[in-house]
From TrEMBL:
GO terms for molecular function: ribosomal large subunit binding. One of its GO terms (cellular component) is nucleus. Pfam families: OB_NMD3 (PF21192). InterPro entries: Nmd3, OB_NMD3. The lineage of its organism: Eukaryota, Metazoa, Chordata, Craniata, Vertebrata. Residues 21-114 form the 60S ribosomal export protein NMD3 OB-fold domain. GO terms for biological process: ribosomal large subunit export from nucleus. This is NMD3 ribosome export adaptor.
Length: 212
């Protein structure tokens, strides 16, 4: 993790952008235990687990092509799971620092995050954000996809949502049981606020706040 002060002192550009993420399926994996840390390796993360993973693109399921990499997502992944990542093996990335690296040290694939079914997440989402009224042209626009990405980031990162007001969505019908639960992260009810309307504050239609 790079803090703001470090970034502005030593700025760098990204090798890839979210639009270049591709979907892979986990074919096999091994957790790496007792990893030896060399000098200057820093503090070991307690939130991640290092693993050796063999994946295959979901767009190449009719082939035998698999890719091997190491990932910090070992605590989340199981064989058969879907995961999003960047395909370095078949990408034309022009970066002066990457070009100086030994090709043997550049991974074929860099896995970024576990992938969950978006339609299920939207259906089960029982919270919302307060936002200005806006025209939604559809679920397949860039703006809507970015908005859904942001909502999913909030569900997956407790620190990110710490300073965000999240409200319980009273319009959503509670789901008592969900047989197709894929383990996607959720926001607990204790983290949600009750939405306060003007009529709630006055006990009527808001007339109580008006004076002659």
């Amino acid at each position: 993790e790079v803090d703001g002060n470090t970034y502005w002192r030593y700025p760098f550009s990204s090798l890839c952008n979210p639009r270049q993420l591709e979907e892979f399926i986990v074919m096999d994996m091994d957790i790496i235990r007792d990893q030896k840390l060399g000098a200057g390796a820093g503090v070991r993360s307690n939130k991640h687990t290092l693993a050796e993973v063999w994946v295959q693109k979901t767009s190449e399921m009719d082939t035998s092509q698999q890719y091997h990499c190491r990932t910090f997502l070992g605590h989340l992944l199981n064989i058969g799971d879907l995961v999003l990542g960047y395909d370095f093996a078949n990408s034309n990335i022009n970066d002066e620092f990457l070009n100086k690296m030994n090709p043997q040290h550049v991974p074929d694939v860099v896995l970024i995050k576990k992938s969950y079914d978006r339609s299920r997440r939207v259906r089960r989402r029982n919270w919302k954000l307060q936002e200005m009224n806006r025209d939604r042209e559809g679920t397949d626009t860039d703006d809507e996809r970015q908005y859904q990405d942001f909502l999913e980031d909030l569900e997956e990162d407790e620190a990110l949502r710490r300073n965000v007001n999240i409200y319980r969505d009273a319009a959503k019908i509670p789901v008592e049981s969900d047989t197709d639960d894929d383990g996607a992260p959720r926001i607990s009810l204790v983290e949600m606020l009750e939405e306060l309307s003007l009529s709630d504050a006055t006990g009527g239609e808001g007339d109580g706040m008006m004076t002659d």
